[in-house]
Each structure stands twice: as structure tokens, then as C-alpha cells.
Specification:
169 residues, alpha+beta, six-stranded antiparallel sheet, 4 helices
């Protein structure tokens, strides 16, 4: 009779068999709730939570509460050409300092501002309405879109050529 070669593992009572990795809390979750109608997708990015709507990254949510906490809040993905007009809508908006540059495309609605929630919800309204000042297509997605268009163009032209060949036969 052969013996089983499996090792028997004993788990003390009350100890979990499977360890479950705890998920981090979503920073400023009310922003995702406000963007729900736009079907946002999220991904971790630079210790923040990046928010995408379609192909555009529209914002990042940050709540680190450490020595760089003055950059906690809602980071808006924009370009320098839109800073002035956005600042009229969001007086507390400024460049993200933790990136080390004086002026960046990323602008923050600081969580420490007294009107943070109101400003963040207003930014969500702008995003949902498709305001062109907020949101950028990341380079990686631009490349994928260009690649997909090229493939579609080649596929379409080969279908047209195949139809032409059939007609000419």
C-alpha cells in the first residue's frame, strides 16, 4: 500500500486559510460617484487613482496625507493653454507641486481648499459635458488608436481590392 506524499497543513482555529489582500480606500470616492454616468475606468498611477473616460485620462484622485499632502485632492489633466480659463472657474486650482516643476499640465483642486467638494463636483460636470479643457489622450493610447486606425485602413483597402478583383473576373 502506497503512502500519500501530500503534506498535511494544520491551520489553528480562527486563522484564515486564504489571505485576502486588503484594497486601498478610494480617495475622494464622491468624484467617481459623480462621474458614474460617464462610465469612468480607474487605474493606479503615481500613488494616485487615475480616472479615464473613454480614451481620455481626465483626472487623478490623491489622498496621501503625508508631507506632500498639499497636493492631495483632484488632479485635472489639462494643458497650459487652458490654465487661465480653468482658473476662472476654479480659483483654488494650481499646478501640482510634487511633480517638481513650477507649471505642469496637471492642475490640482486641493483637498485643503474650503470649496474642494464643490469645485470637484463642478469639474465632474465639465468632464461629463465633454469640456475640451479637461482630459488628455495619453501617448500610449494615442499610439494604440493610430495603430488601430492603420489596421482598419489596411483591412478596409484589402476588402475593397478583393471586391474589385471579383468584379474584374
Amino acid at each position: 500500500m502506497s503512502k500519500s506524499h501530500r503534506k498535511m497543513v494544520f491551520n489553528p482555529p480562527g486563522e484564515a486559510i486564504f489571505k485576502v489582500k486588503r484594497r486601498k480606500n478610494v480617495p475622494h470616492e464622491f468624484v467617481l460617484d459623480a462621474l458614474a454616468s460617464a462610465a469612468p475606468e480607474t487605474r493606479p498611477m503615481f500613488g494616485c487613482l487615475a480616472v479615464y473616460v473613454g480614451d481620455k485620462i481626465v483626472c487623478a484622485l490623491r489622498d496621501k496625507r503625508n508631507e506632500t499632502a498639499d497636493d492631495d485632492g483632484m488632479w485635472l489633466a489639462t494643458t497650459t493653454e487652458h490654465h487661465e480659463s480653468l482658473r476662472r472657474d476654479f480659483p483654488s486650482m494650481r499646478s501640482v507641486r510634487v511633480l517638481g516643476k513650477e507649471v505642469t499640465g496637471w492642475q490640482v483642486l486641493p483637498a485643503e481648499a474650503p470649496d474642494f467638494e464643490e469645485a470637484a463636483l463642478r469639474a465632474c460636470e465639465f468632464i461629463i459635458s465633454g469640456d475640451p479643457r479637461i482630459g488628455k489622450i495619453p501617448a500610449s493610447r494615442r499610439a494604440a488608436i493610430t495603430r488601430n486606425k492603420a489596421v482598419a485602413k489596411v483591412t478596409k483597402s484589402s476588402k475593397v481590392m478583393a471586391k474589385t478583383r471579383k468584379r474584374n473576373r
